[in-house]
Amino acid sequence: MTTHPIFLDLKAPIALDTPVDAQRLTRGTPQTGVLVATENTTKNFHTGQWRAEAGAWRVSYDEEELCVILSGSGQLVGDDGSRFPFKAGDAFVIPAGFSGIWDNADEVRKIYAIVE
Fold first, then answer.
1. Does residue 4 sit within a domain?
2. CATH code of the domain in which 102 resides
């Protein structure tokens, strides 16, 4: 484990190499990719960058996640119909227990920090 700051290269390429599970899809057939920065399994804390193509899929959060949108836009749609639009420059926390649809209007890239 390092005791030095870890800088994220916001221009590093992120390969789109993981399809969203077909059973969760509600629109499109998007691919996703992750560039992990840190994984502290002892404290259940993970950071990095994520990228995904346009499309929509069901999500259900057991963890808390801080999202900082670097590019793209979309919305989260709660199971209760509430809508939470996001765009480049937005930052938000998805609380554990949220379930609904993650809907990318176009390709999205974000920084994430997750606590399980």
1. no
2. 2.60.120.10
